[in-house]
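Session log. Operator J.P. requested a structure for one protein chain; no other inputs attached. Running the standard single-chain path with token output.
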Amino acid sequence: MIGALAAIVGASQVSTDPDVLAGRAVDYTGRYRGTAGALVRPGSADEVAAVLRACRDAGAYVTVQGGRTSLVAGTVPERQDVLLSTERLTAIEAVDTVERRVRVGAGATLAAVQRAAGEAGLLFGVDLAARDSATVGGMASTNAGGLRTVRYGNMGEQVIGLDVALPDGTVLRRHSEVRRDNTGYDLTSLFVGAEGTLGVLTALDLRLHPVPAHRVTAVAGFADLDALISVGRRFRDADGIAALELIDARAAVLTAEHLGIAAPVTGAWMLLIELAGDTDHTESLAAALEDADLAAEPAVGMDAVASQRLWQVRESVGEVLGAYGPPLKFDVSLPLAAIPGFAGAAVDLVAGHAPEAIPVLFGHIGEGNLHLNLVRCALDGDAEHALYSAMMALIAEHGGNVSSEHGVGTRKRDYLSMARTEADIAAMRAVKAALDPSGYLNPAVLFG
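Structure written below.
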């Protein structure tokens, strides 16, 4: 098996070193570990396809890895899998500034795509704090959202074509140069959000956007979460909305303690608002906040330096979450009206299971997408499972979805039925069986 892989990609691109595999078989947080038998790094779509054929014929399981930034252990192998890394698929072609699109390798990082777009006077619509390591192939596989989703949408709305190596070892190349192509099945959409269970993305055509001429950013502090939600509801459909982010006081305290980044306003809750467009939205921002129940005067940034300063607390949260060890993460989507009730109930639930844990809440309030992170949570085994299950049930009780933008991975596969009906799951399994009858590709993900 190893010899066959080496013959496809070259011996230097295959490793069975235990230390290398151990480092690759752990999730982004460091909380979950698996086991792997080999690492292979193809350099082209055809090599990816050949690797898949070899693994299928040998009866080996395959786990696909990009930047390994999954927050639901989506790249953690469970069966001595072959780890198929897309890290060498980093080509970025010339940006088409007329059609505003670019073709990139699945292993290109988000930051690299953003730079290429910026150098061409355009921007890419999805942004994440993990931009330096997250790859666009992985982001498309999970249909990632991020900081700009309220304006530009998730990854699925940016992907307009792709190359994908299928489980049978063939390569599907789905590209179209026209903006409207209503011929047959929308195969591009089928692979976006499939979490690598239906094929390995090797290249993508990405939509790009004009750079707004004007941008204004503000951070407003609130003593009451209901008041913040009211203002958030006002802004999420506002003309020019570019970002709408919630940060709780506990997150602000952590960033101040560990990074020396002070919160720009006071209050138990902060709302970061950014408006952008061809015209200056400063006056409309001020008007929308005029009668809001604020804890203090908002902080406003009207130039790039001031705006970046206001973003620091939000963008630094992820960096400090691991200060007390691997955090326990929950990614939840809720109706806006349910968020205050859920936030209070979640804190009580955590206190009952892990009194020493610090619950930190932040996220993309425009979509009702919250990230609840339990810092200093030492639970494992049955105790962690009990808390995780109870939290999933609490999310469902509040009308939420157990996964908003992180996907299902391995951590949430037991709770898929909370978000999908039996008919939904049966249909997804039928698609999986049609493309991957032996179930060897990403076997731990989604269904398990």
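Operator note: The longest helix spans residues 304-320.
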